[in-house]
Structures are given as C-alpha cells and as structure tokens.
Design brief:
608 residues, mainly alpha, two-stranded parallel sheet
Length: 608
C-alpha cells in the first residue's frame, strides 16, 4: 500500500513539473489547443474551465481550431449549447487569441523555462521535481468510515470530500439549465456555490467553525479545501480515543447540518440562524459520539451540551434526529410514548443509559406506534375469518339436509368447497385484468385499489355471502314445512347446487380480504418486522375459528333455554339455521362499519 501511494504521489508531481513546459507555436499541428501551455501562464483548459468541460475533442491541435490563415475558422465543437456565461468566456477567448500568428512552414517547438538556455537539463528537472514532490494526500478513510455515525451520513461525507455533491458549480457542468440562477451561495448570498465554499469559506460556516475551534481552545485558519480539513489531524479534544471520537462526530455533524440547512433554504424556503444551527451540530455530535465504543458508559459526551438546557434540546431536536436515519418516521400520534426514548433526570445523573427496561431507542418507540395503529385493522379480520370458517362447518351441515343427487351422481356436501377454489381461480385474473384497469382510471393509483379499499370490498362480500346462505336456508325450511318434513330428520328435496352462490361469494371475499391483508401488513409494517407482521394475517384465521366456536356455543346456550329446540338442533328441519346466518351477516355488517371508521383515521406509513 505504501509503495502504491508513493508511486501515485511521484507521478502526480511529475505531471505538475511537465506542466511548466512551454511550446513555441509554429504551424500548430503538434500542440494541443486546450491542454498544452502555449498561451499565457496556464493551459487554455485551465484558463477557461467552463468551456473546456463542454468541448467535444479535448486533444484537438491548434491548427485544426484556428485554421492555416486569418481570419481564424474557430472550429470549436461543443457537446451542447452554451449558456450566457459560457458565451462570454468564448468571446474573451477569441479576443485573447487575436494576436496569435501561425507559420505554416515552421514546425512547433518546445521551450524549457526552468533553465536559462531554454533547453532541457537533468539538473533543472531534478531541482524542479524535488520542489514539487510532496507527500500524497489520500482520502481520510479512518476519519469517516471508522466513526460511529449512520452509514448514510458516512457516504454523504465521502461525496463531499470528492466534490460529488450537487452544488451549483457541479450542476453547471452537467445540466446548466437546472442550475441555480444567479450563481450565488444561498447561505451567505455571495460568491459562487461550491463544496469548498459552502463548508469552509462561507461567512455563515466560518462563524460556526470558529465557534467549534474555540470550544476546543484552538485558533482556526480556513484550509484550501474540505478534503484538507478532513486530512489535517487536529487534536481538537485531545489525542485519546475519546477525544478523537468526539472530534470526528463534531466535524461530520457540522458538514451534515450545513448541507441540510442549504437544502432547506433552497427547496423549503426555511432558514435558521447560526444559534439554531450550532445547537443542531452540538446535539448530533453528542449523540453520535455517545454511540461510539470509545465513550461507552461515560458522561463526558454530554459536556458538549454546555449552555444548553438538556430537556429543551431533546424536545427541540427529537424529530430532527429521526430524519437522519432511514426507515424511521415520527407520527404526531401517541406522542406520550415518545417519553420512553427521552433520558430522565435520574438516568442523566446516574449515567445509566443502557438499561433496555428503562430507556428505549427511537426505533423501538416508532415500531410500537406502527403496530398499535395497525391493530384495529388487523382485529376486523377476525370476524371475517369467523365467517370464512362457516364453509367447513355450517355450510356442510346445511348441505347434508339438501338434495345431494345430481342425475346419477351423489355429491358429498363437503366437496362443494371446490367452488370456493374455482371462485378464487376465477376472480384473481378478473381482478388483475378487468377490475384494476377500470379502478385505475377513477382512483389514479397503480394498483387500482389501495390495500384498505380491497379489504373493505372483501368484508362487504362476506355480508352478501351470509345473506345468500340465510336466503337458501329460508327456502329450504319453507319447503320442509310445505312437505311436512319438519319432524323428520331427512333431506329436503332442494338441490345442493343452490349453495354455489354462497361459496362463490365467499371465494371472491377471500381474494379481496386475505390478499389485501398480506399486502397491507407487508407494506405498512416496520422494515425489521415484516415477516412477523405478515404472519398476523394467519393469526386472524386461527382467532376467527375460535370466535366461530364461541358464537356457536353462545347461540346454542341461549336458544335452548327452558327446553326450547334452539336454532341449531340435531334435526335442522326443526331449527332456524337461517337466524344463525343472519346473525353472522349482522356481525359482518357491524364489523364493516367499524373497519370503515378505522380505515378512515388510519395514517399510512409513507416510506416502505
């Protein structure tokens, strides 16, 4: 690694030495127009960087640009139309080269200005090389990647060090029509916006840097670039591991807060003064340093909170902290739970910040809020599962006292659940190919229906399913009374195929409700709990079966008092199974109303 860095520094210095080599223009066929030093103290590419960035051929010779005779042809090909400022630079370039004269018969020549004779010598080259050679400057990886801060912020600091952030000077290069106009720094309303200016040379950031260095009892002189700022090893809070961790966190928090302030002023038209920015820097630096292993179990990190009321600071910046971590979002609901993540006075005095029974993380609080908000939606699925359980219980009992013969075939009552499967197979493609495109035209949503709307449709179909079963039972009992079969435990001559509609409706309700539940729990659950929350839909199935058994027990107990036959006797011809189906239809309708209220007040999770 040392060898490679030395070679890199050597070749970098070597290229800088050769930059002083001047060219004497003859016919201009061997001298590069933009990159060779032939006019002025710098190559034209360095004198006019805005034009050099957008030119197509950066190695084009002088003769190809100017042409052999005057007036010059100016064959400059750019990869896009020039902006107003670039047109002004082009006019300045053309005026500057007005005194150039090409000699078609004279070849181009080199001149070595480091020697008095103008000729190259090893001695002059060695002296120049020793003057320019210096230690290679590499990215301070330990300063960034070894710090205990979120990876998202570490990646951002890497972009800042390499000047890859979307400052105005970078936008001018790539897409000038999208750059800010005029080209000024939004923080100080002066100068051009660049990474070095925003984070080092802006009047607002200079004041904040001085304040940070004064806290470390040091004088600050702005370095040349932000990379130099990271590369220089300041012993701001000492050379110990604790001091280094605290200094790293302070510097990185500084850059992060300044960039957020810049974006807030541009895109949200919101501005904070230097005091508010300083409070944010102190808070984030304290928080990140506190999370580092070097300060584990110590209260020294909170010394940065001098002159700031701790409770006021936590209350002010609690929601700001959530913005920095992906997957977290604070909801202005159940805010009483936020207290679980705030350090109490007793914990602050004792320094016990690691007991999970006393202090929760912000992530744990927000995930609990999500689960609590999802609970009412989940609970409404239990009643639907109780209705779905009738397919294997009361529907079969009803089919056993109906005519099961179709021609020469005898149909087992339990086999009619096949129509539930057929209904699912039918409704899935109908939903995807027909209903979703139609709904998309009205709702404007890619899926046509939201998960909540899809579940609501399924709950409504469950009401229709129970109503259809009740109507079939009413018809069966009327036929049993007409044929005087009430006292006989025999099948009524009503075809079992009349049960198909209720099975078909139940299959449609299953498509809408169960699939909607899976999508809802997966999309709205916390990222770290998606597998667990997806299993909640299976839990509703089991609880629905228990609820179905409970309702059946209660109905049987209440309707058989005082020696009454009851709704569901052994001989269904003497009972009122239709009342039971109407009861489930009524419960399903009430469940639908409760669901509509819960879905109306539910606040969706924005980021998935």
């Amino acid at each position: 690694m040392v060898t490679s860095l030395s070679l890199e520094g050597y070749f970098s210095s070597l290229s800088r030495v050769f930059l002083v080599t001047r060219f004497v223009v003859g016919n201009g066929e061997r001298i590069r127009f933009w990159e060779d030093l032939w006019w002025g103290d710098q190559p034209l590419g360095s004198q006019y960087p805005s034009l050099f960035r957008v030119v197509l051929d950066k190695n084009i010779p002088i003769s190809s640009v100017l042409g052999p005779t005057r007036p010059f042809s100016w064959n400059l090909n750019f990869r896009r139309n020039l902006s107003d400022s670039e047109i002004e630079d082009l006019e300045g370039l053309m005026r500057s080269l007005d005194g150039v004269h090409l000699s078609p018969s004279v070849p181009d020549a080199r001149s070595w200005p480091l020697s008095s004779s103008g000729l190259f010598s090893v001695k002059s080259f060695f002296l120049a090389l020793s003057q320019f050679f210096g230690p290679p400057q590499v990215f301070p990886s330990k300063f960034v990647w070894n710090s205990q801060i979120p990876f998202k912020v570490q990646s951002f600091i890497w972009l800042v060090a390499h000047k890859k952030v979307n400052t105005n000077d970078m936008l001018q290069v790539r897409r000038p029509y999208k750059a800010l106009s005029p080209d000024i720094c939004i923080l100080c309303m002066k100068h051009g916006e660049s990474a070095d200016h925003i984070f080092l040379h802006c009047s607002l950031t200079i004041g904040l840097w001085h304040r940070l260095f004064q806290l470390a009892k040091m004088d600050w002189v702005p370095p040349r670039s932000i990379l130099d700022m990271m590369y220089i090893k300041f012993n701001g809070f000492g050379s110990s591991k604790r001091g280094i961790a605290l200094w790293q966190a302070a510097n990185i928090a500084f850059i992060r807060i300044v960039w957020r302030e810049r974006n807030a002023r541009i895109f949200e038209d919101k501005a904070r003064n230097s005091e508010a920015l300083w409070d944010s820097i102190v808070y984030l630096a304290s928080l990140w340093a506190y999370c580092s292993k070097a300060l584990e179990g110590l209260n020294i990190v909170w010394r940065l909170l001098v002159h700031v009321e701790l409770a006021w600071l936590l209350d002010l910046h609690f929601y700001e902290f959530l913005f920095l971590f992906p997957g977290l979002e604070n909801y202005k609901q159940m805010m009483c739970l936020d207290k679980a993540a705030v350090i109490s006075d007793a914990e602050f005095k004792s320094g016990d910040f690691f007991n999970p029974w006393n202090l929760c993380t912000v992530t744990q609080v927000e995930e609990l809020k999500i689960l609590i908000r999802m609970f009412p939606i989940w609970a409404t699925g239990i009643v639907f599962s109780a209705v779905y359980a009738q397919m294997s219980t009361m529907f079969v009992e009803q089919g056993m006292v109906m005519d099961t013969t179709v021609g020469s075939f005898t149909i087992p009552p339990a086999s009619l659940s096949t129509f539930d499967v057929i209904s699912v197979i039918f409704w899935v493609p109908v939903y995807d190919r027909i209903l979703v495109p139609i709904a998309r035209k009205f709702t404007g949503k890619e899926r046509g229906f939201s998960e909540l709307q899809r579940m609501g449709i399924g709950l409504f179909l469950s009401v229709l399913c129970m109503s259809a079963a009740a109507l079939v039972e009413i018809k069966r009992l009327q036929l049993a009374t007409a044929l005087d079969l009430v006292d006989e435990d025999v099948a009524v001559p009503l075809s079992i195929l009349w049960q198909i509609p209720q099975y078909f409706l139940l299959g449609a309700a299953e498509v809408f409700t169960f699939i909607g539940q899976l999508e809802f729990f997966y999309d709205q659950s916390p990222d770290a709990m998606r597998s667990l929350c997806s299993a909640l839909s299976l839990l509703t199935t089991s609880l629905g079966n228990y609820l179905s058994a409970f309702i059946l027990t209660v109905v049987t107990t209440l309707t058989t008092k005082d020696g009454k036959t009851g709704w569901i006797p052994d001989n269904l011809n003497k009972g009122h199974l239709d009342y039971y189906f109407w009861l489930l239809a009524g419960l399903s309708f009430l469940n639908l109303l409760v669901y509509m209220i819960c879905a109306k007040i539910y606040k969706r999770k924005k980021g998935s």
